[in-house]
């Protein structure tokens, strides 16, 4: 150790290369060793700096600690995203977090994750999900973000990346290398090897079970799959009609009801419905006599008619000779020998006498003396005094008053926390500008005085403005929907839909039922409400309505999201209607407000609601929806258990509409899930009208569009509102429905 100063009592600092300092003043002439500063090199570097001349800054030590002033090492761990020992380098090679000790998940295309949190910047590789892409797809799902649903035989797990099933064995109704292709039209079953039966109107059967839509068979066929010919004594659609009792052995052709073995004695015709009439010679001559009398009577009537017509003609000619001829504007001008101004007749008739369109332009030349004399001679020949000729202006006004009857054109959020559901969002930005450009049509006109004079029609019990041209051919569906949206026709259609309670809702208004309504102004109609079975004098009310499909009645049940005091009623309705599928379109909480009470227990747990026990068997979470398998049985009878499939769409935004892609993906998955229970689908959101109506219409119109040549969305919306008020609640939902049909129907073309 080197010293300096008086009597060498002072110790030298940390000179560079361990050199000696100046023996007098202690200055290091060649500089300081790393980590020290000042001319005597006896002071360590300030915090956050280290090294030769204290010129290097410390790295990101955990908690902001100072690094070693000599070599820059952090005394402990690094901040997240940096490597030891000096904590100056970012994490590399797919690592992140404290000291870069954690490995990134399966980010898409091998991209590095976020250095601090480990979140993948885009999405995951197929087979993985979660923000950090470290969670493998649940059993039954595969692919990008685990949105694909496996379709393997016996619910076997598929490959989480490709979706391929073990040994290529697909679930019934599916085929292809990854079992992701639904059976082609009119094929069904295992490996899609079975041909569909004879469904009504050549409809496509269920690809899994082979059952025809709504169990309806074509003419001459019956059975669960419509492959069985009618028995000899029945005929017609689904073999529902009995052959005539007048057929021998009551047997007939199963297609046209013709008696195959002839008629019993006394009957004739192809279906033996006409009695055999035995005629005699007297009957023949009696009929001939009647025919002759009818001919004579017809001739006499014709002659009388001609006589009356001639008399009326002669009388009319006489009256014309006696009554003076009325003069028009030109003839008046001829009589008085003046020019007639050309006037704007429309403006004159409306009282606009100051119109600038009046010009002193003669309509005809001034009458000559011969023409004036001819007029005078004709007037002198009239026996009676002629009526005075009105001036031209009066003639014009009288004419316009006769012709004035000309028509000219007039130019909710679903859930509110205070218990109201808002009015349909037709006005405001977007819809006003859309409707302003509508062309005048006979269906949207008003009187010239500004009062409404709309033609009306009775539709599903509603007196509505008569809207024409709402049916769209599928051959040009895509282009038509785009054009009608841009010019405002869709908004105009929606504006004319009936809103609010148009039919009796007396049961929902009863005092004992008010607490069961989530919203006080959304109530089921009395004629279409779901009526629960009373048990010991209980209440039969639930805020739910049967909704007709296009070709069948009571195909759906639209209901509000269950409340905590109506969950038992909800499960009773599911049981009594033999429902196998529940569609949920709202989340439990949206924007901090409750929208629906959780009416199912957690996975592997059971809960009893009233007389029913509910158990959630499994839950599969996808990107935009979840699928839950729920078991339901009566509390007093555990032997009869039903399996309910609940599909929960989780990305329908409150106060908005989902993307068409998400909606179609959800609907496709819902349609592919089969259930042996044949009751109506239960669909709910919060109020059970807006999102619920949009989904039901999409499902019903999609099924109908598979075999139809055209669709009428407006007409079906009216049909739904006949069963439950305000179905499809906003113009945005109405337009979204059209766009989803244009995108989703395979036979909808541009």
| Overall pLDDT score | 80
Strand order of the largest sheet: 26-27-35-28-34-33-32-31
Report the end-to-end length measured between terminal Cα atoms.
Answer: 94 Å
For this structure, what is the CATH class of one domain? Alpha Beta
Query: For the record, what is the CATH homologous superfamily label of one domain?
Result: Protein tyrosine phosphatase superfamily
Using only CA atoms, what is the Rg? 44 Å
The percentage of residues in β strands lies in 15-25%
Structural write-up:
- It is a single chain.
- It contains 14 helices and 36 strands.
- It is elongated, with a radius of gyration of 44 Å.
- By secondary structure, the protein is α+β, with helices and mostly antiparallel strands.
- Helices cover 23% and strands 15% of the residues.
- Among the domains are: 3-64, no CATH class; 323-403, no CATH class; 506-744, Protein-Tyrosine Phosphatase, Chain A (Alpha-Beta Complex).
- The protein has an 8-stranded mixed sheet with strand order 26-27-35-28-34-33-32-31, sandwiched between helices. A two-stranded antiparallel sheet has the order 1-2.
- A hairpin with a 5-residue loop joins strand 1 (3-4) and strand 2.
- Residues 323-454 have low confidence and may be disordered.
- Helix 7 packs antiparallel against helix 14 (731-744), helix 11 crosses helix 14 and helix 12 (690-705) runs parallel beside helix 14 (731-744).
């Amino acid at each position: 150790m080197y010293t300096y100063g008086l009597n060498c009592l002072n110790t030298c600092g940390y000179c560079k290369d361990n050199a000696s300092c100046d023996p007098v003043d202690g200055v290091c002439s060649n500089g300081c060793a790393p980590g020290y500063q000042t001319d005597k090199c006896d002071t360590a570097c300030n915090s956050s700096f280290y090294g030769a001349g204290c010129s290097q800054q410390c790295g990101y030590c955990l908690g902001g600690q100072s690094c070693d002033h000599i070599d820059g090492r952090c005394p402990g761990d690094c901040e997240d995203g940096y490597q030891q020992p000096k904590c100056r380098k970012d994490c590399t090679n797919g690592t992140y977090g404290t000291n870069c000790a954690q490995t990134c998940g399966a980010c898409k295309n091998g991209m590095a994750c976020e250095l601090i949190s480990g979140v993948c910047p885009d999405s995951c590789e197929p087979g993985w999900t979660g923000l950090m892409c470290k969670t493998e797809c649940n059993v039954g799902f595969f692919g990008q973000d685990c949105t694909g649903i496996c379709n393997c035989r016996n619910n076997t797990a598929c490959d989480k990346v490709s979706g391929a099933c073990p040994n290529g064995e697909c679930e019934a109704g599916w085929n292809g290398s990854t079992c992701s292709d639904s059976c082609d039209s009119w094929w069904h079953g295992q490996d899609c090897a079975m041909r569909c039966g004879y469904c009504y109107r050549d409809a496509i059967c269920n690809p899994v079970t082979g059952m025809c839509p709504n169990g309806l068979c074509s003419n001459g066929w019956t059975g669960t799959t419509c492959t069985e010919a009618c028995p000899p004594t029945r005929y017609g659609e689904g073999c529902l009609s009995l052959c005539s009792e007048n057929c021998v052995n009551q047997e007939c052709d199963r297609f046209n009801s013709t008696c195959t073995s002839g008629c019993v004695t006394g009957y004739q015709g192809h279906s033996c419905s006409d009695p055999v009439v035995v005629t005699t010679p007297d009957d023949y001559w009696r009929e001939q006599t009647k025919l002759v009398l009818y001919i004579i009577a017809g001739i006499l009537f014709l002659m009388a008619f001609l006589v009356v017509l001639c008399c009326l003609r002669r009388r009319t000619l006489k009256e014309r000779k006696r009554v003076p001829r009325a003069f028009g504007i030109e003839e008046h001008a001829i009589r008085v020998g003046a020019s007639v101004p050309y006037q704007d007749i429309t403006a004159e008739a409306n009282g606009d006498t100051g119109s600038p369109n009046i010009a002193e332009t003669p309509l005809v030349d001034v009458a000559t003396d011969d023409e004036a004399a001819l007029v005078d001679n004709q007037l002198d020949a009239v026996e009676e005094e002629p009526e005075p000729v009105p001036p031209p202006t009066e003639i014009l006004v009288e004419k316009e008053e006769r012709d004035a009857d000309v028509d000219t054109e007039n130019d909710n959020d679903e859930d509110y926390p205070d218990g109201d559901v808002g009015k349909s969002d037709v006005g405001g930005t977007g819809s006003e500008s859309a409707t302003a450009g509508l062309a005048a049509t006979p269906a949207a006109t008003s009187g010239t005085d500004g009062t409404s004079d709309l033609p009306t029609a009775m539709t599903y019990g509603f007196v509505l403005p008569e809207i024409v041209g709402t049916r769209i051919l599928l051959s040009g569906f895509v282009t038509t929907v785009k054009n009608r949206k841009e010019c405002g026709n869709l908004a105009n259609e929606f504006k004319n839909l009936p809103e609010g309670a148009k039919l009796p809702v007396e049961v929902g208004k009863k005092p004992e039922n008010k607490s069961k309504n989530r919203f006080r102004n959304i109530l089921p109609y009395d004629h279409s409400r779901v009526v629960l079975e009373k048990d010991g004098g209980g209440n039969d009310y639930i805020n739910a309505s049967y909704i007709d499909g296009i070709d069948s009645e009571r195909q759906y049940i639209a209901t509000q999201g269950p409340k905590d005091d109506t969950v038992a009623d909800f499960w009773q309705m599911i049981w009594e209607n033999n429902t196998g599928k529940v569609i949920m379109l709202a989340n439990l909480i949206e924007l901090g407000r409750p929208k629906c009470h959780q009416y199912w227990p957690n996975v592997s747990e059971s809960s009893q609601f009233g007389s029913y026990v509910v158990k959630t068997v499994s839950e599969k979470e996808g990107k935009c929806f979840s699928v839950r398998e729920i078991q339901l049985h009566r509390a007093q009878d555990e032997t009869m258990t039903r399996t309910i499939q609940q599909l929960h769409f989780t990305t329908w935004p409150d106060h908005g509409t989902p993307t068409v892609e998400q909606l179609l993906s959800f609907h496709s998955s819902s349609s592919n899930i089969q259930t042996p229970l044949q009751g109506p689908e239960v669909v709910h959101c919060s109020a059970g009208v807006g999102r619920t109506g949009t989904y039901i219409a999409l499902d019903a119109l999609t099924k109908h569009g598979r075999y139809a040549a055209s669709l009428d969305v407006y007409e079906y919306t009216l049909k739904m509102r006949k069963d439950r008020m305000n179905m499809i609640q906003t113009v945005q939902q109405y337009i979204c429905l059209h766009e989803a049909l244009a995108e989703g129907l395979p036979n909808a073309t541009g």
